[in-house]
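Give me the 3D structure for UDP-N-acetylmuramoylalanine--D-glutamate ligase.
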Amino acid sequence: MNHPREYKNQQVVILGLARSGVAVAKLFHEYGAIVTVNDKKELDLCPEADELTALGISVICGSHPADIIHQAVKLVVKNPGIPYTIEPIQSAQKLGIEIVTEVEVAYHVCQAPMICVTGSNGKTTTTTWIGLMLEAAAKKPIVAGNIGRALTEAALEADSDNMMVVELSSFQLKGTKDFRPKVACLLNVYETHLDYHGAMDDYIASKSMLFANQTSVDTAVLNWDDPVCRRIAGEVKASVLPFSIKEELEYGLFIQPSLSDKTIPTTEKQLVYRDRQGLLHNILSVSQLGIPASFNVENALAASAAAITADVPLEHIAKALRDFRGVEHRLEHVATKDGVLFYNNSKATNATATIKTIESFEQQDIILIAGGLDRGSDYMELLPVFQERVKGLVTMGQTKQKISDVAMLAGMSRVKTVDTANDVQDTITEAVREAMAMAKAGDVVLLSPACASWDMFPSYEERGRMFRQSVHNL
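Predicted structure for UDP-N-acetylmuramoylalanine--D-glutamate ligase (474 residues):
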């Protein structure tokens, strides 16, 4: 696409309100474009509409009118979550109208270099860590994107003295064209979001858009333990900075000795960086990380790699790694009740995230609360941890029966499903009570759904909030 200023007096359609839609609509309006915003939700469910209408922007709610897309439209900016199968997108494609997401728009107006993070799991933790590392080194970071703040809004505030730290989803990246981050970090690739992408090839291709326009002066931070990341490493034009928890690297960041070496105590394992001259630099010990679990070691390595590319001193990197206590709804300790520990891991929206979380508890028995939006998975990958680590299971949502069936195959005898009609707070409260009834002192009750929240809750945050409330009310 062109710079937004080039759309003055031209028609631009924004599909979807929410944070990003509002930010993009205001931006194009300020540049003089003729902006139409369309959201299929009814007007009373679109509180953002009043602000845009007051600016003179046309807002159409309640449906996608057949004539919303026509030959005179020069650009369509879609909300990342809107599928490409809806009629307005199909019409735009037939007419040859360019379709982008907000990320592409933000790139064209942003003066600051971008450090961007994507992956199936760990994006928010890694992005937050990078922001803290840059802040410690007075690099003036602005953290935005999928992590919360609309990227377009943040990009307009940035200048060349800032550094943008951006969390990106596959949905956002799929709609990019010219987007080129200075540092692009891919944490991992697991099977997820197939209801949107249709197949893994499309999902991987969307993630790979992060590197599409990089050159040799840019950096690609890649997980050397992930086969997809390693394959992508051979395709990118950027300079590759790898990280690994399983092997020692000739160049990059890794654990010494490897986490896979169970003969060495965790307290003796170190996060290290080997530079291009072969010199080894200690960052800190694994035991000093502010948040536990092997997947957070991976996130720590990735964040450190990104910070190193921004010339952050290692002492600032180490301090951020020590001081950070985790993001909300990600392995968040809620309370201890009668010796039972309750953890909120609502951000685990796929089975791999749930498996890694379960494996992070080395000793305790686990009572798992899981279930949510059905995206077509059979959840059979949960079978080994159900057999080895999970003492009891409570399921809810669209996938409650699928996940319960896997538990039965695993030989679990303590399995409950909950469904209290349309009251989601009652449902999760009942789930917490059932889990508590299965637990004894020293056990962990873990909300780690392995599913998105949208069948019952507006967001994983709301799901986690209701879980916390139910625990505190026990």
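The first strand starts at residue 11 and ends at 15. Let me know if you want a second pass.
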